[in-house]
Amino acid sequence: MERIGVGLIGTGFMGKCHAMAYGAVRAVYGDVPVIDRVALCDVEAGHAAKSASAWGFARSTTDWRDLLADPSIDLISITSPNGLHREMAVAALEAGKHVWCEKPMALTMADAQAMTDAAARSGKGTALGYAYLQNPALQEARRLIAEGAIGTPFDFRGSVDEDYMADPALPWSWRLKAKEAGLGTLGDLTVHLISLARTLMGEIASLTAMVDTVHVERPLPQGGTAQVENDDIAHALVRFASGARGTMTSSRIAHGRKNGLRVEVHGSKGMLWLDNERMNELNLYIAEGPPESRGFRRILSGPLHGDYARLCPAPGHGLGFNELKVIELAELVKAIRGEPSRSIGFAEGLKIEATIHAFARSAETGLWVKTG
Ligand SMILES: NC(=O)c1ccc[n+]([C@@H]2O[C@H](COP(=O)([O-])OP(=O)(O)OC[C@H]3O[C@@H](n4cnc5c(N)ncnc54)[C@H](O)[C@@H]3O)[C@@H](O)[C@H]2O)c1
């Protein structure tokens, strides 16, 4: 494959991230096909045209189905609100396109299952936007656990906190509506935490959860208020298939936390932890040597970790979120080529969706529930 033609749907936060990744991936990796930025789509024509010109796309449209009809497009990025993912992804796969779709997959398990079935029928490559899995510090944590550096991992502590909805006076948006966003914090933030937990600890088998909306009404931009239709906060006790245990807490209303995705793995010989707000650092404690000189080691990311060297030859200089999206795209290209890949395709992503819906089910029933 010499060339991949791409079509991008949505030009907001994630749309720009995907566009930057398309612009950078060949410069970073060299051995990927030429990325031909064929067309992008957004609902407002002037805005779409401006984004296309700024981001190096040859043309723009306001109808995403135009992208599917274009035979020069091989890969579709879906960065629209969650409620559109199913229709767009299924249609793109049925049109013979590969799909890079933002998380969460969809509003409901039925929608996510339909996307997974369409992917299986098409045989095309799929990837979901689990960028934090590509963090070289996380990859190093995974490697250390796998080689037994902290012994048997028996306990996981994870939290994901942001404050983008912390102010109760912040206006209502699509993210708060069940028909457009589906679940709230669970779909927006908890999915990332689950993706990290699975990577470090293996599958989550069962859980019991408490899920709440704290700020139940929000002001409407045009005046009056609207009911918030999904969760602000979710907490759970989890049991991994390995028998290990853990806790997970998530909030979109946590004042002061900006990208507070933090994971700890406790093992029989040591412990490690990472915090996305300092995403180039891995903290490792090994219980050996004289007790008086034991302590955490702070390992700065560098060329020996994950794909760091592709982006930067110097340790400690650090990668950022947008660079993780470049790695994510390179992993999707591997999946499209049929090579081993860390991409979370739709079949893998379905397990993450099943876990957030298990949170919701458990919160409703007050019971432990299985995630499968
Ligand atoms: N991976 C991550 O870390 C991460 C971070 C933020 C958001 N997301 C996900 O990305 C998706 C988009 O979030 P965002 O923050 O970029 O939102 P956003 O509101 O910034 O952008 C959404 C874009 O989609 C466009 N859009 C809406 N309807 C459309 C249609 N019918 N056709 C074409 N374009 C349409 C909007 O005009 C807007 O440009 C969501 O699913 C969200 O959960 C992922």
What does this protein structure show overall?
The protein folds into two domains: 3-130, 3-Layer(aba) Sandwich (Rossmann fold); 132-370, Dihydrodipicolinate Reductase, domain 2. Helix content is 35%, strand content 25%. It is built from eleven helices and 17 strands. It has helices at residues 13-29, 45-55, 64-69, 85-94, 109-122, 136-146, 178-181, 185-201, 308-311, 321-336, 346-365; strands at residues 3-9, 34-41, 59-61, 75-78, 98-101, 126-128, 153-161, 204-212, 217-219, 225-227, 233-240, 245-251, 260-267, 270-275, 281-286, 297-300, 369-370. It has a nine-stranded mixed β-sheet with strand order 16-15-14-13-7-12-11-8-17. Helix 4 (85-94) runs parallel beside helix 5. The site of nicotinamide-adenine-dinucleotide (NAD) has 21 residues, from helix 1.
Question: Keywords, please?
Answer:
Rossmann fold, 372 residues, 17 strands, nine-stranded mixed β-sheet, Dihydrodipicolinate Reductase, domain 2, 35% helix, 11 helices, binds nicotinamide-adenine-dinucleotide
